[in-house]
Amino acid sequence: MSKPFDLIVIGAGPGGYIAAIRAAQLGMNVACIDEWKTADGKPAPGGTCTNVGCIPSKALLQSSENYEHAAKHFGEHGITVSGLKMDVAKMIGRKDAVVKQNNDGILYLFKKNKVTYFNGRGSFVKAVDGGYEIAVAGDKPETLTAKQIIVATGSSARALPGVPFDEEHILSNDGALRIGAVPKKLGLIGSGVIGLEMGSVWRRLGAEVTVLEALPTFLGAVDEQIAKEAKKAFDKQGLKIELGVKVGEVKSGKKGVSVAYTNAKGEAQTLEVDKLIVSIGRVPHTVGLNAEAMGLKLGERGDIVVDDDCKTNLPGVWAVGDVVRGPMLAHKAEEEGVAVAERIAGQHGHVDFNLVPWVIYTSPEIAWVGKTEQQLKQAGVKYKAGTFPFMANGRARALGDTTGMVKFLADVATDEILGVHMVGPMASELIAEACVAMAFRASSEDIARICHAHPSLSESTKEAALAVDKRTLNF
Ligand code: FAD
Ligand code: NAI
Fold first, then answer.
1. CA 166 to each of CA 174, 211, 278: distance values in angstroms, whole numbers, following the listed order
2. Which segments constitute the FAD/NAD(P)-binding domain (predicted)?
3. What is the CA(281)–ligand 2 centre distance, in A?
4. Residue of 153, 193, 318, 428 to mutate, ligand 1, most atoms within 8 A of C-beta
């Protein structure tokens, strides 16, 4: 006997669980299916983000930053620490506890919003009565039906061709978040977001870290000036990043991993490391969904093809998050989930892709929203730029964290803010002001005329806005 619902969401990552909650708020009878389980077999909703992504990586970034502060920076404050020790097992345990709090939080939210959660793999069975039959394969097999389906099955780590993850020596993001002891030498392939965040964690804890990147440019999607400033900071920290390499044979044995590669000068090199994290991007995940048999259209990358409203080619079937086009970010997945739930309810859900912020949680943090200077140049848009260094900000000096800057790009004629870019302390939080300003189509003058608390890092945002008109007050 199948169980009828108004909406079935497959996947309980940020795209799926948020869509399920929003739909329930709008009065729908919602089922959410997710197959993730903890190592000891307990249901663990939250997807990649909660289990092996955003949340655990930020927990380890925080622990490792605390350690580095105590080891290297407390002295500047007149605080002497003797006998400083690191307990990696405890750090990993704390990270797991933070993940569990988030899993439990989502289970609580499902109950609160009356979303029925099924732990198991969801797959399309057949079309029925203008809707679909979905099977749940798990400890308790079930058959569900609904007229509306949201697929939010996320993504998985891309492996190097012929080099599968063993999560012992060759690690994806999963293994990278549960290394049991600090490796003496750690290698990473790919200096993208995971490469920089995970490289930072293990470098801070004492590993000698080398990152091999195929592209000749560092962080090509980031504003060039900001990327240059960030690279300088990482070089100073001892994070070794080699650009323009071509990775060849990777051999893994009991003693570790050896990576043959050609460097930017064309010279043959070998990198010997204890562990290798492969962070070369992620692939949309549709395994086990029975998507193709159902006639669901997939793109070249294995992504589910959707239109601007997240509609697939099948009536009543929507897809959101990492499994579709666009940036693979939790908040982008959430926004799409909310918008689709609202569209199903007959409302006008909307996502502005130009206003999806990016944050890289290294130290200094890198954050941006809107267009980069190179994008504006390429599009022939006439713009004005203003920058303000954290070095000239009183709060940053008090914090002892003066690396980096805030940069504003505004339209030359209208002064509308076109992009805001930051590298420096708490950029992850500061970028929110830029998102709000741009959502309201503010000008740089609007920000320049708003009273910001003193002393605060956010004064750098105001000063960068003033810099657009060449009238900074503190620099
Ligand atoms: P996912 O979170 O991948 O969730 C999909 C869920 O669907 C999973 O639980 C999966 O088990 C389940 N599933 C798949 N197929 C089925 C099926 N057939 N039946 C049932 N269940 C199924 N983004 C940020 O914005 N900020 C960050 O700081 C950040 N840090 C990250 C750090 C790392 C190390 C990684 C790997 C990613 C990070 N991301 C971050 C990206 C973020 O995790 C993803 O963009 C986000 O999780 C996408 O959400 P989603 O709902 O589309 O998919
Ligand atoms: P990425 O796309 O950020 O970076 C991959 C890097 O690997 C690129 O620089 C690419 O040029 C390089 N590369 C690809 N193939 C290579 C090869 N064969 N040899 C050497 N280099 C190679 O992907 P990453 O770091 O794996 O992260 C995946 C995604 O997860 C991110 O794009 C992002 O969407 C999400 N994420 C977001 C975070 C955040 O918001 N703070 C944190 C971590 C991940």
1. 11, 19, 11
2. 5-337
3. 4
4. 153
| Reported confidence tier of residue 153, pLDDT bands at 50, 70, 90 | very high
Q: What is the pLDDT of residues 1-37, one digit of tens each?
A: 899 999 999 999 999 999 999 999 999 999 999 999 9
Partners of 208 in the β-ladder = 185
What is the rounded end-to-end Cα distance, in angstroms, of the chain? 71
**Distance of alpha carbon 131 from alpha carbon 148, whole angstroms:** 7
Q: Across residues 131-150, what is the average pLDDT? A: 96
Per-residue confidence (pLDDT) for residue 260, from 0 to 100: 98
Q: Where are the beta strands (DSSP E) in 65-198?
A: 116-128, 131-138, 142-151, 155-157, 170-171, 185-189
d(CA 159, CA 68): 31
Query: What pLDDT score was predicted for residue 317?
Result: 98
pLDDT above 90 covers a percentage of the chain that reads 98
Of all ligands present, the nearest one to the C-alpha of 137 is: 1
Sequence-separated (6 or more) residues with CB below 8 Å from residue 274: 169, 183, 184, 185, 186, 256, 257
What is the 218 CA–ligand 2 centroid distance (Å)? 12
Question: Could you tell me which residues are annotated as the binding site for NAD(+)?
Answer: 190-197, 213, 281
Ligand positioned closest to the Cα atom of 160: 2
The binding site for FAD consists of 58, 122, 153-155, 322, 328-331
pLDDT band at 292 (very low <50, low <70, confident <90, very high): confident
Residue entry with tokens 């990327």? 227
Helix H or strand E segment including 418: strand 417-424
CA distance 390 to 278: 33
With cut-offs at 50, 70 and 90, classify the pLDDT of residue 130.
confident
Q: pLDDT digit string (tens) for 154-205?
A: 999 999 999 999 999 999 999 999 999 999 999 999 999 999 999 999 999 9
The partner residues of 271 in beta bridges, in order of sequence, read: 259
- Which domains are present in the chain? 3-157+283-351 (3.50.50.60), 170-280 (3.50.50.60), 357-468 (3.30.390.30)
Nearest listed ligand to the Cα of residue 320: 1
The tokens describing 49, both together, are 């983000």
Task: Find out whether the beta carbon of 36 lies less than 6 Å from any atom of ligand 1.
Answer: yes
The residues, any chain, with a CB within 8 Å of residue 331's CB and separated by 6 or more, are 14, 356, 357
Q: Quick one: which atom of ligand 1 is closest to the CA of 176?
A: 34
Output the CA torsion 199→204→207→211 (10° steps).
20
